[in-house]
Specification:
By secondary structure, this protein is of the alpha/beta class. It has 6 helices and 4 strands; from the N terminus they run ααβαβαβαβα.
């Protein structure tokens, strides 16, 4: 019988999705434990302002359903954030603009549909420059996102919330978008 590490954070220090899914298969962790871990991290690092909305209850329920499911997609249990300009049906999307703060998407982007079909868990929407137009992530209705390496600095790019969330361990992966460096700048 294997025992989980004494520090639960050690459970989610994976170098690949394959490694994480191996831990799921072996029973060393569950999708629900993963989601609860990331929800805790998001709360602990709220000062980064990486997320503009967290789907806590929905993510936990999806994780529970995935843990019970016999079907295992290629992204089974992978906890993912979405930049606030990527549509997710039935969820708010504002592109970090006050004008759209109460708009609910009528459809999901193809990328989101494919993530869900493969068993991913969407944990929330992430901060960005308004309408994805900027290079610092300082021009958001929700305030600036901070760089997890030094909160006095910006994360860069309009996808800064997405980049900061992954770097700070607030989710396993994130979708951003790039027009003029929105993904490339935070990745440098």
């Amino acid at each position: 019988i294997s025992h989980p590490p004494s520090d639960p954070r050690d459970l989610f220090q994976f170098t690949s999705i394959e490694q994480y899914q191996s831990e799921l298969t072996s029973g060393r962790t569950t999708c629900e434990q993963a989601v609860r871990h990331f929800l805790s991290r998001i709360e602990e690092h709220a000062s980064l302002n990486a997320f503009v909305e967290v789907y806590a209850e929905e993510a936990v329920q999806r994780a529970i359903n995935l843990d019970r499911s016999k079907q295992k997609g290629r992204l089974h249990g992978v906890v993912i954030g979405l930049k606030d300009n990527i549509c997710y049906k039935g969820h708010r999307i504002s592109a970090a603009s006050g004008i759209l703060q109460d708009f609910t998407s009528l459809y999901s982007a193809t990328a989101v549909e494919r993530l869900l079909a493969e068993g991913a868990i969407i944990i929330g929407r992430q901060n960005c420059d308004e309408f994805g137009m900027g290079s610092t992530n300082e021009n958001s209705y929700y305030g600036s996102a901070a760089n997890p390496l030094n909160e006095e600095h910006v994360p860069g790019g309009s996808s800064g919330g997405s980049a900061a969330a992954v770097k700070a361990g607030l989710c396993m992966a994130s979708l951003g978008s790039d027009t003029g460096g929105s993904v490339r700048q935070p990745a440098d």
